[in-house]
């Protein structure tokens, strides 16, 4: 099974590229942000908890996030592969993902890091907020999310570099250029 992590700051294009990879390679997509937004919309207990954190631009606690992830992942048992979008976001989540996959005889195949300059991220996220109405795409929350990304999530770059599965991608290229760069790397893995 192909287990792909798509990594990058909020607004780096993880969702867009995930959709393309799903189409090209027939893998399943797990976006933890989408899972949480669906729960918030349904007003479940989990949704209420998630809302408290997401509205502040903070991360959902690791233990809760890991249990949600495992449940969703086990729903894709006979899948060709999975693309993890928005997970892991902390070292603890990366450790948990490694263990969860190992328990199932699997491992992460590759981690793509979409790097986009900060000023470009701000522009993209403010635009997305206006177009989609996503509650956390307002200037104040965006700044908090970018701070959280720098302090809690970027340490994963070195973590995956050490595992030898890190792939840097220039996230400022066109959507098509980025898809084909990612696609070539996946083809080589296959
Ligand atoms: P995203 O759509 O991936 O930008 O996620 C939106 C929000 O959901 C984040 O700002 C977090 O509050 C929460 N979230 C999504 N994925 C995770 C995760 N792996 N760990 C903790 N919180 C998460």
TrEMBL record:
Keyword Transferase part of the UniProt annotation: yes
InterPro entries noted in UniProt: Adenylat/UMP-CMP_kin, Adenylat_kinase_CS, P-loop_NTPase
GO molecular function: AMP kinase activity; ATP binding
Pfam families with a match to the protein in the record: ADK
Keywords: Kinase, Nucleotide-binding, Transferase
E.C. number(s) listed in UniProt: 2.7.4.3
The protein's name in its UniProt record: Adenylate kinase
Presence of the UniProt keyword Kinase in the record: yes
